[in-house]
From TrEMBL:
Annotated ranges, domain N-acetyltransferase: 11-179
Domain of life: Bacteria
Cross-referenced InterPro entries: Acyl_CoA_acyltransferase (IPR016181), GNAT_dom (IPR000182), N-acetyltransferase (IPR051531)
Species name: Qipengyuania aurantiaca
Alphabetized Gene3D superfamilies for the sequence: 3.40.630.30
Protein name: GNAT family N-acetyltransferase
A matching Pfam family: Acetyltransf_3
Species classification: Bacteria, Pseudomonadati, Pseudomonadota, Alphaproteobacteria, Sphingomonadales
Classification via PROSITE patterns: GNAT
Length: 185
């Protein structure tokens, strides 16, 4: 049974549950949605990420969540908190936030709505001192949302990711401290 972590006007943010791999494969694992994340994944890769997320939630009380549209009950994305685990990143273990929205729901404000709830969760119940978000300069929509959320570009945290295509290198990071978030809220 999934835990509901947060609700917004249009979304329910809940933990991963049975059947989410198939839902994610169907609506999120497309070439367009996954363009800046290394392309579509195999089912076993998504299963492994879900298992890792469930373990993180059980151990630390946070993970990535499924975004369920209240009006339709459909999966429209996922968003949440994990630990920076890229071996090339200079800040392993930092609280990393992120999101992914299905293509037919782009430009409707779902990512921002979800991430505002995730930030409240991160700085509230999770008690993170700061969060980071990773993207690339080529992913304009991603870093523009980071800026709208009050995040600050951190060039000192950039790193090269050999498994990513050249257009998505370097990986760039934005950060937000609890104090910056409280001031902006």
């Amino acid at each position: 049974m999934a835990d509901i972590i947060a609700e917004t006007d249009r979304l329910i943010l809940r933990t991963i549950e049975e059947g989410d791999v198939e839902r994610q494969m169907r609506v999120l694992n497309t070439p367009t949605v996954m363009a800046h994340l290394g392309g579509p994944k195999e089912a076993h890769e998504i299963e492994a990420k879900h298992a890792k997320g469930m373990q993180l939630y059980a151990r630390r009380g946070f993970s990535f969540l499924m975004l369920i549209e209240k009006d339709t009950g459909e999966l429209v994305g996922h968003a949440g908190i994990k630990e920076v685990d890229n071996p090339h990143a200079p800040n392993p273990g930092d609280h990393e936030i992120g999101w992914l929205i299905r293509e037919d729901r782009w430009r409707r404000g779902y990512a921002r709505e979800a991430m505002e709830a995730v930030l409240e969760w991160a700085f509230g119940r999770v008690d993170a001192p700061h969060v980071v978000a990773l993207t690339s300069e080529a992913n304009t929509a991603s870093w523009k949302l980071m800026e709208k959320l009050g995040m600050v570009r951190r060039k000192d945290l950039d790193f090269e990711e050999p498994d990513r295509p050249a257009r998505d290198n370097p990986v760039i990071q934005y950060s937000l401290t609890r104090e910056q978030w409280e001031t902006a809220s």
